[in-house]
Amino acid sequence: MSERINVIGLGYIGLPTALILSKNGFKVHGVDSNEDVVESLLSAEVHIKEDGLESILKDSLSCEKLTVSSSPQKADIFIITVPTPIDNDKKPDVSFVMQAIRDISKYLEPGNLVIIESTCPVGTTHDIYDYLTKLGIDANKIEIAYCPERVLPGKIIYELINNNRLVGGIRNKSNELAANFFRKFIKGDVVTTSSEIAEMAKLAENSFRDVNIAFANELSIICENSNIDVWELIKLTNLHPRVNILNPSVGVGGHCIAVDPWFIVDSDKENSKLIKQARTVNLNKTKWVVEKVIEEVNEFKNQFGKTPNVCCLGLAYKPDIDDLRESPALQIYQILSESFESVSAVEPNLKDNNNVKLISIEEAKESADLILILVPHKEFYNFSADAKILNFCSPGTYQ
Questions:
Q1: What is the DSSP letter of 215?
Q2: Is 256 annotated in the active site?
Q3: Catalytic one among 23, 65, 202, 318?
């Protein structure tokens, strides 16, 4: 491929994207402000857990299809994949996106294409057009498009290639260039629309999922109070041909489902009551789990006259990954650690973490008095121990 690509932000989306592009013959320059990330990648070591990344990285570096540094270069296409967190007031923070735009503005040339993949409030793509104009760039000669990613951690490589893509440009030419670019390396359909619809689609997709998870989590608490087996209830209810209740959990984590609904709430507080309530339900489910554990700890203390050794199985926000972003399991561990002296965790997908007391599965079986199964990692299948086990995952996964 003749196009030169800059990928700005080499995290869970940016790094796999850069590697897939380099594997498909594009000349790719990856950019990250974290010097440790840059050094790690230049040493052919990936900093996130995702099958297949390291081998592609080694191949891309050896054939000189990928370079990495902390600064952009001249390119034909610039892809922005930096974080867009929410602040303490649940307001979206697009400062990293705007910083990335400032950084690449020095290298932009007429005819360049800028693709935004970071989650953004509706209207951000047009704000970027205005911002480039403010920076002295003739934005009429730069094509800008928003393209939300839709990938599942653990299957990112597969889904980046095979999932459908939604492209929303600031004008028809932006859509045409961005759609043609994606069709060169993905197998899914590429659908074009306005930038506003593409931005809202990303937020709506994850808000829809959050609302459905909230129903399952709320139902699990109601069933607990009514002494009903929620797992049996869901299995039987889902026999209805038009019902598909999801599995309850200890809460909702990750950078998308736990964050994106707040973008909609912030934009229209008056009319987003259900979306906001779903966020509240899922946050409260995590608090409910903590309360159940504290009840068990107090019962143990009353029975044995001492505080139990508590061990949390799983800290990531979903099974079989190392991603701790917005993880409810990690929040549960942190709250319990602040409340009791002896709290540890088993997280097979982490090598180390200075903020967590990590132990092995064998150590957990030997030393723990109370074990909490918070995340259904495959390493925990058929888990058993002499200690009391509180299983907050589907019992069908375990013995």
A1: H
A2: yes
A3: 202
Please name the CATH architecture into which domain 4-188 falls: 3-Layer(aba) Sandwich (3.40)
pTM for this structure? 0.92
The tokens of 117 are what? 């993949």
Between the CA of residue 60 and those of 9, 53, 57, 138, 155, what are the distances in Å? 17, 10, 5, 34, 20
Query: What confidence tens digit (pLDDT) does each residue in 147-169 have?
Result: 998 888 888 999 999 999 999 99
The reply to whether 173 belongs to the active site is: no
**Torsion angle of C-alpha atoms 267, 83, 170, 173, degrees rounded to 10:** -160
Separation between Cα atoms, residue 306 and residue 352, nearest integer Å: 29
Which residue is listed with tokens 């498909």? 24
User: Residues 6 or more apart from 232 whose CB is under 8 A from it?
Assistant: none
Helix then strand count (H, E) for the chain reads 13, 12
Segment (H or E) for 176? helix 172-183
SS3 sequence, 248-277?
Answer: CCCCCCCCCCCCHHHHHHHHCHHHCHHHHH
Mean pLDDT taken over the chain: 94
Average pLDDT over residues 223-233: 95
- Looking at domain 249-397, its CATH superfamily turns out to be NAD(P)-binding Rossmann-like Domain (3.40.50.720)
Main-chain dihedrals φ then ψ at residue 387, nearest 5 degrees: -70, 165
**Chain-centre distance for alpha carbon 311:** 25
Q: Which single residue is written with the structure tokens 């902390």? A: 70
Residue 60's H or E segment, with its range, is: helix 53-62
Phi, psi of 128 (to 5 degrees): -65, -40
As a whole number, mean pLDDT of residues 308-321 equals: 94
Q: Which residue bears the tokens 């069709």?
A: 183
Catalytic residue among 120, 256, 311, 393: 256
Q: Do domains 4-188 and 249-397 have the same CATH topology?
A: yes
348 three-class SS: coil
Residue type, 279: R
Q: CA separation (Å) from 329 to 193, 242, 321?
A: 38, 31, 13
Q: Point out which residues pair with 190 in neighbouring strands.
A: 165
Domain boundaries, given as residue ranges, for the chain: 4-188, 249-397
Distance CA 92, CA 101 (A): 17
**Gyration radius (Cα) of the chain, Å:** 23
pLDDT > 90? residue 367:
yes
The dihedrals phi and psi of 373, each to the nearest 5 degrees, come to -90, 105
